[in-house]
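Field log, afternoon session.

UNIT: design team B
ACTIVITY: writing a sequence onto a fixed backbone
BACKBONE:
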């Protein structure tokens, strides 16, 4: 008799726990799908030197001077690789570490830029925004 009650309590506890877990993740698939698409679009913008497009992902866009833009045009990205990705359990924030390999047209030296990115999810708009600065490419 005690084993039957214990089994019933355990099964009910499991069902309650499962339903709570499912309800707390109601927008998770949409947020994750949105994150993946956003990260791919941002990577494409950086790889193909669409710096205006990349700036559109920033929460706090930076003004790029004509001089900076001219220098950025001469950057060639050879690789963009996500090294680490940590997503908050509620899908409200994502932390990424990305290695960007690039060279400057006037140099045969490939450089590596480790870019630490913080992405925040805007649930009402189903979109992710970058809360960190544009990658700091070095021109030395």
């Amino acid at each position: 008799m005690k084993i039957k009650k214990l089994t019933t309590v355990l099964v009910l506890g499991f069902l309650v726990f499962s339903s709570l877990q499912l309800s707390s993740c109601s927008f998770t698939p949409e947020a994750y799908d949105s994150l993946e698409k956003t990260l791919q679009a941002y990577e494409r913008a950086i790889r193909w030197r669409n710096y205006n497009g990349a700036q559109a992902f920033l929460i706090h866009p930076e003004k790029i001077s004509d001089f900076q833009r001219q220098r950025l045009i001469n950057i060639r990205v050879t690789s963009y690789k996500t090294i680490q990705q940590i997503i908050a359990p509620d899908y409200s924030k994502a932390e990424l570490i990305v290695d960007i390999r690039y060279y400057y047209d006037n140099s045969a030296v490939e450089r590596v830029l480790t870019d630490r990115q913080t992405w925040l999810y805007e649930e009402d708009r189903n979109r992710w925004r970058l809360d960190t600065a544009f990658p700091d490419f070095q021109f030395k």
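LOG NOTE: The mean pLDDT is 84.
NEXT ACTIVITY: expression trials, pending approval
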